[in-house]
Input
Amino acid sequence: MIQKCISCGQDFEITEGDLSFYAGIDVPKQKKCPNCRLLRLLLERNTRQLYYRKCDFSGRKIISMYHEKQLFPVYEPSAWWGDGWDDLAQGMDFDFNRPFFEQFKELKNSVPHFSVFTVNVENSEFTNCAGYIKDCYLIFEADYDEDCFYSNRIYHSNDCIDCSNCYDCECCYELIDGLNCYGLKYSQECTDCHDGYFLKNCIGCKECIGCMNQRQKTFMIFNEQYTEDEYKEKKAQMGLDSYDGLKDLEKKAWDFFVNQPHKQWEGEQNENVVGDHVYNSKNAFHCFDCKDLEDCKYCYRSASHVKNCFDYSGYGFKAEFVYESAACGDNVNNLKFCSTCATNSSDLEYCFGCTSCSNCFGCASLKKKKFCILNKQYSEADFKTLRGKIIEYMKETGEWGEFFPNEICPYGYNESLAMEQFPMTKEEAISKGFKWSDYEMPAPEIASDVVVCEVTGKPFRLIKQELDFYKSWNLPLPRRSPNQRHFDRLAKRPLYGLRRTSCSNCGKEIDANILSYQPKKVLCRECYFSLVY
Output
């Protein structure tokens, strides 16, 4: 079935499998294309933009993902999780003479929001969307890390700086899409690699420089084998402890990579999977940056035991039957049209910021509650009766089956993850009905520990921990701000999408990831593995 997107006007396909899934969870078929649905879900998450403001509970100065001009109260984590406020105090009766979304917006803007979305963090104040971390600074979408800085989507890692999308890594710098690597620098899509510079798509390599598509190799430079003494001599001549030496090697490496064969997409240990950077998954279609999926479609940025989910952009960690929801995870089940709900939550619809809740509809910022509608408590029988009536009413208003409208989202487009995948100018965003934030944190005063970014001209600080790291690994000081370095890494990754092309070797048609640069050779997975093994 071909459907026209009500948002962008593009045609998209709804399969029989899609219709079966919609019927199974009792929701209408989608009216928007996958890209428009993804954009709206990514808009729900501001992971990296942090502000100073006061806590509306304690009055203390805190770090928050919400700037001080937001309409709703914001509590620091200790206050939000504490018992000093009543999360049912703003409960409302449902008004069948007003649209549901209008009532929900009113409720959402009246309840306290947590300042940052963190759980079990120690000495890691300047982080967001993170859990179980210690001694970390400016890391986001991260879990189970220690002594990590300026990174996003890193898990079970230690002593890493400026890394993205990495698992089980240690002492790595400027690593993108790494797995179980140690001492790797300026590299991408590597597994089990140690002590190398500028490696791409290598596995089990050690003491290599500027290599691509190598397996279990040592002392190689630009895919050429050297003896240990030859390797060390050539490495010493490269000036890797200097900024100019590294920039010169970076240019040579990327010129070299463009001419090497690329596989159609990244992913390992998969069965019946279509997507990119998907690992250890089965029956997953159009999924990206995910791990441990089963029977999923249109899932993004999710990790660990995610099953039967559809249109889900979240952090995963035991999620099942989650539909059109964002930033939800940590043992959640049967969530529909939800945002930022977590930790042992189930059977939620149109909820925001609820934790350890079940059987709630249209609620915001609840903790350990059940059978609530618009933050008002009901008996189980009354809840089920009223929920059914509200759904029928929303079908009449055209709201049932639609995600929260843009105006309910508190973030500016440029604050959210949507900006990374679907970049827009301020004018474009506003013309499409999105908000835009011009609010900025005051710049640090110029001092001995402040550097001016060579790209943006904005000052940024160097902290002691990173200075110690650079010294221990003989690395030059960065000349670009942490934010600019983050966007530099993004530019080296494909966006969430596939394009139809043909294998440069066998000629068969394949789906390939969309790269920010165009390699000269793209191979199907069969031809690629025949080449490298």
Observations:
- The mean pLDDT is 95.
- Residues 380-397 form the longest helix (18 residues).
